[in-house]
Design goal:
This protein is of the alpha/beta class. Helix content is about 55%, strand content about 10%. It folds into three domains: about 35-75, Single alpha-helices involved in coiled-coils or other helix-helix interfaces (Up-down Bundle), CATH 1.20.5; about 85-295, Rossmann fold (3-Layer(aba) Sandwich); about 325-360. The longest helix is centred in the last third of the chain and has 28 residues, at about 300-325. The structure holds guanosine-5'-triphosphate and magnesium ion. The site of magnesium ion (MG) has 4 residues, from helix 6 and helix 8. Pfam families: MeaB.
């Protein structure tokens, strides 16, 4: 037999020598169980107050959870963070799809982190359950901001009603503030009711526009223009600069037709390019001027108080409605009465009265 055949493979063990104990199975198991264990609400609160992102993300996941076991814990965490919140400025950004909201937030957010600010970006987008979370796609448009250690980007809670998403976003704002983020940016797509919801949770509301062909004001909902504290005409670059400047003149003229706001603040119209960054720092100056003015007059706090009151009432209304519509007896009587109303057997008011009677009797 040749020597070759006697050779043993390098993986074979020689008798008497066992492989070193490089892994400690029980230690691994301990780590695994620890990971599986959910942190307690106190641990989450401590983590958030320390600025720990994992704790922040986990707590937001709890807030977003539809599992009723998580509700109480989420409430505890929010409650524990509340006294550490409120120390930020909250800015809402709206505009039709494609106007450049995400690209703008990337440029604006980077400008802010360069100024030493800590920026959290949230989104209110009730349609995202259909589109599978549009801000997820946004993350690729916020390439720089995603990598920035002074920025935190969180996709919108999905699969929910606008009321549900809004509540979760409000609570997420509290957690982000407690974690030390001093500038909260909330993106919302300019369709449906979501901008009204965002308007009622921010201090400053910015409407993003692009210059169109000719009639700039066409198709803008008057209500949105009235809500805006600033209108920014984006994509003012290349061949677009001239048109953007024309649009600025038109919007300025239109804004002066609105009755003055109760802030002494005259909404501003500016142009910018989120790609070349031209005009971005001026927008922050405008926003800062607004905060300075409204903090001085007390309007800043007054508006937050009003918003808190509004959300308390909204929550009550929403839960009452939910409770009503989830009662099995109501569900079946509603079905019956709906048919009866359709067949003209009962008036809509009598049908409603009938349902409410049943509900109140059960309470
Ligand atoms: N030239 C130019 N293009 C821009 C500018 N800002 C955004 N864009 C482009 O416009 C397109 C849409 O930008 P997004 O930032 O995704 O727009 P959005 O408003 O967030 O869109 P949705 O999330 O779909 O509502 C992208 O192709 C951007 O590169 C700008 O200032 N100048
Ligand atoms: Mg976007």
């Amino acid at each position: 037999m040749s020597n070759f055949n006697k050779q043993v493979g390098s993986l074979s063990e020689k008798p008497g020598i066992s492989p070193p104990e490089i892994t400690n199975i029980s230690a691994i198991n301990q780590i695994k169980t620890k990971r599986r264990q959910q942190p307690s609400s106190d641990e989450l609160i401590t983590g958030i107050l320390d600025g720990n992102r994992t704790s922040l993300s986990r707590a937001i996941t709890l807030i977003e959870s539809t599992n009723s076991d998580h509700f109480q814990k989420a409430d505890e965490v929010v409650q524990g963070c509340l006294s550490h919140a409120n120390k930020s400025v909250r800015i809402g950004i709206t505009g039709v799809p494609g106007v450049g909201k995400s690209t703008f937030i990337e440029a604006f957010g980077k400008h802010l982190t360069e100024l030493g600010k800590k920026v959290a970006v949230l989104a209110v987008d009730p349609s995202s359950s259909l589109s599978n979370g549009s801000i997820l796609g946004d993350k690729t448009r916020m390439e720089e901001l995603v990598k920035d250690e002074n920025a935190f980007i969180r996709p919108s809670a999905s699969g929910e009603t606008l009321g549900g998403v809004a509540r979760k976003t409000r609570e997420t704002i509290i957690l982000c503030e407690a974690a030390g983020f001093d500038t909260i940016i909330i993106e919302t797509v300019g369709v449906g009711q979501s901008e009204t919801a965002v308007h009622s949770m921010v201090d400053f509301f910015l409407l993003l526009k692009i210059s169109g062909a000719g009639d700039e004001l066409q198709g803008i909902k008057r209500g949105i223009m009235e809500m805006a504290d600033a209108i920014v005409i984006n994509k003012a670059d290349g061949d677009n600069i001239k048109k953007a400047n024309q649009a600025k003149v038109e919007f300025n003229r239109a804004l002066h037709l609105f009755p003055p706001k109760n802030t002494n603040w005259q909404p501003k119209v500016t142009t910018c390019s989120s790609i070349t960054k031209e005009g971005i720092s001026e927008i922050w100056s405008t926003v800062s001027d607004y905060f300075e003015l409204t903090k001085e007059t007390g309007f800043f706090q007054e508006k937050r108080n009003e918003q808190n009151h509004f959300w308390m009432m909204e929550t009550i209304n929403e839960q009452l409605k939910q409770n009503f519509y989830n009662q099995p007896e109501i569900i079946s009587l509603l079905k019956e009465n709906k048919k009866a109303v359709q067949n003209n057997e009962i008036s809509p008011f009598a049908a409603a009265h009938d349902l409410l009677q049943l509900y109140f009797k059960k309470q």
